[in-house]
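One such shown below:

_____
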Amino acid sequence: MISRACNKLVISERTIFYETEKQADWSAIHEYCRTQGLKYPLLVKRLACMIISGASTPETFDILQPATLSSGMILLMEKEYQLLRSTFEDAGFTDEQIAFLTKQWYIDVLARIRINSFRIELALGSYEDILLSAAASVDAEAAVGNAIYILPSFYNHDCDPNIHILWIESVNAKLKALRDIEAGEELRICYIDASMDHNARQAILSEGFGFHCKCARCMSTD
């Protein structure tokens, strides 16, 4: 009975969320993101709709580590914020409904999405097939979207990871061990393409994630 009740609650919240999103015309935001090559503002839009519908709260991502933002990034985010807020206003949402949607809230959420979102790649085949290609670079066209998974966001990085996050025929994230893992050993994933050389990895991690990697592989300059 509890399981059935939970399922009904999830379905109800999902229905309300989609109904909320359908009330606005998102064509301007979608076109802006397409021409600018942006994807994360669409995740903020989705979260905002979830908050308005009651399926989430404004503090949902507060627990996650934010990215360090440059002044140039913040200026671009301010334009995105104005576009998002005006879309809600044009759709007839009240000031009370979007009271949470301040410029600072938008910037704070986007800063967390930037370094905590996962690119979803729907993988087909067996776990063994995925294990063989886990460390390989994946073409951008292979991704079907981006999403935030709270628990996996807490995994630390290693350029020689012992686990890999994957998706098999759904957007439910699963973990696959890449080697034997000792009892008490920390589980670590690779935030980037592990096949890149040392200098390329360091540059991307420093610029995109704000840290200098000191994993065993990087310390050996491999």
Notes: The chain has eight helices and seven strands. Helices lie at 2-21, 27-36, 40-53, 71-90, 103-116, 127-133, 198-209, 216-219. The longest helix spans residues 2-21. The chain has two domains: 1-113, 116-189.
